[in-house]
Amino acid sequence: MNWYPWLNTPYRQLVGQYAAGRGHHALLLHAAAGNGDEALAYGLSRWLICQRHNGEKSCGECHSCRLMLAGNHPDYHVLTPEKGKSSLGIEPIRQVIETLYSHAQQGGAKVIWLPQAELLTEAAANALLKTLEEPPEKTYFLLSCREPSRLLATLRSRCFYWHLASPDEQLSLQWLNRQVPGNPVDLLTALRLHDGAPLAAEQLLQPERWQQRGALCAALNAALPQHDMLSLLPVLNHEDVAERLHWLCALLVDAMKWQQGAASFALNQDQQPLVQQLASQLSGTSLQQVVQQWLNCRHQLLNVTGVNRELLLTERLLSWEQMLGATGYSHPHSL
Fold first, then answer.
1. Which helix (H) or strand (E) holds 163?
2. Domains delineated in the chain
3. Where are the transmembrane segments (predicted)?
4. What is the C-alpha to C-alpha distance for residues 28 and 44, in angstroms, rounded to an integer?
C-alpha cells in the first residue's frame, strides 16, 4: 500500500500513544475520502502486529511482518460488505468475534479493520458493542468513517476519536504536481473541489475524468445565453451523476461567492468566466434556490431505489429554464 507524506505526523502521534501504553483498543478514524486513512490504518496495523518494533516503524522482517506483506496474516481481519451488498451485516461480525476469543495464531496482537464503519447494520453494530467494551487481550479495532454521525452513538462512545484532516493546501499542491504535473490553476481547482483531499484530486485530474468535467463546463457555458438548460442532459445523465451534480453545484455556489466579491475563495479557479456568467443570470436568492433543488435531486438519485434518473434530471433542468426565463437579473459587480 502506498504511503503519503502528510500521514507522517498523525502516524507518529498514534504509534507514540501505543508505544507508551496509552493507545486505545478501539480507534475511530474520521477522514474525507482521498486523505489516505486506508494507508494510515494499514501502517498502524503493521506496527501493532509486528513482533520486533524498530522504534515507530514495523521491522518488516519478523514472521508477522512477512505475513502482513504477503497479505495473509491470520490475525489481521478486514471487514467489508460482501460483493453486491451495500451494508455490513451481523454474520461477519459474529464470525470475527468468535475468532478473537481463541488465541492469536501468531501469539501476538489481533487487529480488526473496518474501512467503512458507517456500512454496519444496526444489528451488526450492536453485536460489536460488547466486544468493543471488553475486548480480548492485545486486540485492536480500527474503524474508518466519512460521517461519524451515521454511527450508533453507543459505538462512537466506545472508541477513541481521531480526525485525519486534509493536509495543508501548499503541501498537497506540491505532492499533486509530482503525481500529475500540469497547470497550477487546474491542480488548485481539483484540490478545492474535493475539500483539500489530495488522492481524490489526483483521480479527478486523470485525463478522461478532467475532460468530462470540462465537457460539463463547456455545455453550461453554451446553454446559459440561450436559456437552453435541457441541453445539459447528455452530460449529466451518467452513472456517476452524483459527482457531476457536485461539479454543477460547486459552480453555482462559486457564482454566489462572486456576487459577494469573494471570487478568490471560489473552488472552480479555472472557470471564472463561466462563474461570472452564472452570477449575472440569477440573483443570489435564485442561485440558492437552484443549488438547493439540485442538492435535493442528488439526494434522491443516491437514496431512492429505482428512481428514473433521466426523468428527474429533465424535470430539474426544465425548472431551471423557467426560472431563467422569468428573470432579467444582471449583477453590477465585476471581477
1. strand 160-164
2. 1-53+96-118+128-165 (3.40.50.300), 225-326 (1.20.272.10)
3. none
4. 13
Instruction: Give residue 38's identity as a one-letter amino acid code.
Output: E
- In this prediction, residue 108 carries a pLDDT of 83
Count Cα neighbours of 31 within 13 Å in the Cβ-side half-sphere.
Answer: 30
Q: 54 phi and psi, to 5 degrees?
A: -105, 75
Output the pTM of the full model: 0.89
Phi and psi for 209 in degrees, rounded to 5? -70, -45
- What one-character-per-residue DSSP string does 106-153 give? TSS-EEEEETTGGGB-HHHHHHHHHHHHSPPTTEEEEEEES-GGGS-H
Yes or no: say if 92 and 126 are a contact pair by the CB < 8 Å rule. no
Residue that is written with C-alpha cell 452524483 in the block: 242
Q: Letter for the amino acid at 140?
A: Y
182: Cβ–Cβ under 8 A, 6 or more apart, which residues?
Answer: 205
What is the rounded distance in angstroms from the CA atom of residue 173 to the CA atom of residue 5?
A: 12
| pLDDT tens readout for residues 245-300 | 999 999 999 999 999 999 999 999 999 999 999 999 889 999 999 999 999 999 99
**Considering just the CA atoms, what is the radius of gyration of the chain in Å?**
24
35: which DSSP letter?
A: S
Could you please report the per-residue DSSP string of 287-334? HHHHHHHHHHHHHHHHHSTT--HHHHHHHHHHHHHHHHHT--------
Q: What pLDDT is recorded for position 325?
A: 79
**Contact, 144 vs 29, CB < 8 A?**
yes
Q: How far apart are CA 295 and CA 279, in angstroms?
A: 19
Percentage above 90 pLDDT, the chain: 86
Query: Which position has the grid cell 451485516?
Result: 89
- Whole-angstrom CA distances from 13 to 35, 56, 138, 278, 324 are 17, 10, 20, 46, 53
Q: Cell 453550461 sits at which residue?
A: 220
Per residue in 103-128, pLDDT tens?
Answer: 666 678 999 999 999 999 999 999 99
* Best CA proximity match to 151, nearest among 113, 112, 111, 124: 124
